[in-house]
Amino acid sequence: VGVAGDIGAETEALLMENGVNSLPFTPQVIQCLPVISPQNPWKVTDSELAKRRDLRSSRIFSIDPPTARDLDDALSYRDMGDGTIEIGVHIADVSHFVLPGTALDAEARDRATTVYLVQKAIPMLPGVLCEDLCSLNPGVDRYAFSAIWRLSSETGDIVEEWFGKSVINSCTKLSYDLAQTMIDGKIVDNWNGADRVSSTLGPYGKHTVAEIAQDVVGLHKLAMTMRRIRFERGALSLDGIKLTFQLDTDGTPIGTCQYAIKDSNRLVEEYMLLANMQVAKKIASGFPHHALLRKHPSPHQRRMRQFMEFCTDVGYGEIDGSSSKSLNASIKEARARGTLIAKEPPLTSTTTPATETSSSSSSSAKQLTKKTTQKQRPASDLPVLEADAASFEYVDQAIRLMSTRSMQLAKYFC
User: Fold this and answer.
1) What is the C-alpha R_g of the chain?
2) 84-138, pLDDT tens digit by residue?
3) Phi/psi class of residue 205: alpha, beta or left (left: φ > 0; alpha: ψ in -120 to 50)?
């Protein structure tokens, strides 16, 4: 494959080891693609438009990482003025171009998904589709599947919904950082206030920056309401730690840091979750014997016990894993307790060697800290760790990681 240590050779070896097909697409696959050129650009046909809802005049935009090239989802927002809000989730209509039984269909089935590495992506579909015709790029007409709801502005409950094929024309491509700047009120009626502004931002069509900023703020406000109510009803959130990498001009990783989850990320997550749940219900009701659905099984019992023992051993209290709601509340309380201890370290303590436990999960705690016996803190009768704020940040991350490890992978079922 190449010289050991060379990033290109190591990448190819990694792909081969995991059975990832990174070969160029065959001529048979390429023949399935639309023939387009600057002289013969792709355009919406009248016959196809007649089958779809025309949403090209609607204010629709995408929110993605700044480096994203395949924009497969977009959002829209409209205050109806009667206590309801119209929300649209628009997904690129890939099925229009990938016809059943074709070489392109077989290749997509074989590749299954786009594989993302640190410095490159191995696409499931040729670039003319995933980066162009099936990417909801701003300022161009694109086919989409749309889910449109009228939601209560107070509770987020669905009043009315519509699913169907559409034609959209996104007015701008926002990054998570740019959307967050709007949420923070730093962008109101122009792009001033953004750290980096691309000339391709637009907005396209008759839409203004002020209107887009208002929509983002409205989406955020409703998303936070929906998120709060979802957790009150027993939803579980386990924020795993995600790394992001800095690359040099050759694509070699030169640094890494923790990826920060912002309100703009949660905004998109909330509406994608809504779309997934409602589409699943629609498919299940319409095709009860053929619907392929996904669910998350109960946590892995052994790993959950290890996690609960770990939290007790390091002084974060008992974890109640009897339900998703109680588990989420326990983890939240444990992390808050750790933050309090980090801000108010014990004044006096007598250290004793860390106690051995039967759980392998305790090794992380023993590497980090020692148990202490000390004068009881007024806020808690739990044992307290002798550690500084940085150490407690480490334990906090350990709690997040171990709670995630106890969860099982989603399963598909009919």
Assistant:
1) 25
2) 999 999 999 999 999 999 999 999 999 999 999 888 899 999 999 999 999 999 9
3) left
- Round the average pLDDT of the chain to a whole number and report it: 84
Selection from 319, 297, 316 nearest residue 308 by Cα: 319
- Omega of the bond leading into 253 within 30 degrees of 0 (cis): no
- Residue matched to tokens 């019992």: 301
Would you state the torsion angle of the CA atoms of residues 186, 188, 191, 194, taken in this order, to the nearest 10 degrees? 10
3-state secondary structure of 142: strand
pLDDT at 81: 95
Mean pLDDT over residues 351-370, rounded?
A: 38
CA distance 224 to 230: 10
- How many other C-beta atoms can be found within 10 angstroms of the C-beta atom of residue 245? 13
pLDDT at 413: 87
Q: What is the pTM of this model?
A: 0.82
CA distances from 29 to 10, 25, 128, 129, 281 (A): 28, 6, 12, 12, 34
Kindly state the average pLDDT of the residues 317-330. Answer: 83
181 CB neighbour count, 10 Å cutoff: 21
Separation of alpha carbons 82 and 16, rounded Å: 57
What DSSP string runs through 326-394? Answer: HHHHHHHHHHHHHHHHHHS--S--EE-PPPP-S-TTHHHHHHH---EE-SPBTTB-S------HHHHHH
Residue 83 gets the label, from left (phi > 0), alpha (psi -120 to 50) or beta, of left
Residue 202 banded pLDDT, cuts 50, 70, 90? confident
